[in-house]
Amino acid sequence: MPFEVPTMKKVAEVAGVSLGTVSNYMNQPSVVAPATREKVQSAIDRLGYIRNAAARDLKRKGNDGIGLIVPDILNRLFVEIARGAQLAANREALSLLLANAVYRFTSFHPLATDDQQDQYLDVFAEERVSGILYAAMSDPTAGINRIRGHVRPVVVINYDQPGDWCSVLLDNQQAGRLGCEHLHERGFRRVYFVSPPDVAQPIADRRAGVRDAAARLGLDLIEFTADGLWFDDGRRAAEEILRSAPPGERLAFLGATDELALGALSVLRERPELHIPEDVGVMGLEGAHDGQPSDWVPLTSLIVPGNRMGGEAIRLVLDEARPGHRHQRLTLPVTLRQGRST
Question: Which H or E element spans position 264?
């Protein structure tokens, strides 16, 4: 006997109610009496009925989904943002639709990137989602303006660009300042800030914070240009720094990312004559690495409020749709996480 796909009409028959009552239960359950809700839900469970979202959205000319575009789900910050946004969306009976743009730098000299951020803006606009959270890596203005006729509420995350939208930002300049202030407190005077060129706004902001604090505190700051953002780039940078640094002088390696700092630690592990942090200190500025006790040397880094960023973005995208809304630019602070590497 062929399988028969359960329909809303069949649910109504099994529950002994009208088709309109089932529709109300699906879309406005508060208007249905509790006893009737139980009968309808029992019929749904018995039949294995799943609503046809495409048909519902066709009638409503939209859906209850919030689209979130992140540059890369390998980056812990964006995982935490997605988690915070999902929890907040669930509390509002909304679904979070996640798109991973797989943003990556294919070349630093000259700068070239590969990503699908604009493509997913179009996808979410075509789906008529209720709003979009856009964790951009470059100026989002053109893409947002292009889809505004289809999706009005948009919140930009982690990219500071004035526009007709709300923003939720991480204080990356504070991150750079915190790094230098901590190293100064730990007695370091010679600090190597290791970073690729300012290929993304967060990197440029961290550099600005590092420069500001180093000048204020009188640190000997050396800016070392790495080949990239990753572990092997940190290894190569640390090897070159140790070859060129004045012998016997205590120094600190301050990585723009935690991956760079972890690469430096791997080099120091091969140099038993150098002690951490007595001879060399290492710190990251990203908050992407936990600093587990099982690490060879737990890394000093930051705690970034990714969960809160996602939750605030949901709050703002919902507020965007309300009359009288005024755009907000929300900048959230970071905190220090002390590890043995400093």
Answer: helix 258-269
Task: Report the distance separating Cα 218 and Cα 342, nearest Å.
Answer: 19
Task: Among 2.102.10.10, 3.90.215.10, 3.40.50.2300, 2.70.50.60, name the CATH number for the domain at 172-303.
Answer: 3.40.50.2300
Note the pLDDT tens digit of each residue in 76-113: 999 999 999 999 999 988 999 999 999 887 787 777 78
Cis peptide before 197 (omega within 30 of 0): no
Rounded to 10 deg, the angle between the 258-269 and 231-244 helix axes is 60
Separation in Å, CA 221 to CA 98, 218, 326: 40, 9, 41
SS3 54: helix
Residue 247 token pair: 């012998």
Please, where are the H alpha helices in 189-251?
201-217, 231-244
Asked whether 129 and 81 are in contact (CB, 8 A), the reply is: no
Whole-number Cα distances in Å, 11 to 15, 20, 51, 86, 90: 6, 11, 11, 30, 26
Tell me the residue length of the chain: 342
Q: How far, in whole angstroms, is CA 340 from its chain's centroid?
A: 27
Distance between CA atoms of residues 121 and 133, nearest Å = 10
The residues that bridge with 328 in the sheet, in sequence order, are: none
For the domain made up of 65-171+306-334, give the CATH fold: Rossmann fold (3.40.50)
pTM score, whole prediction: 0.80
Residue 57 pLDDT exceeds 70: no
What are the beta bridge partners of residue 154? 132
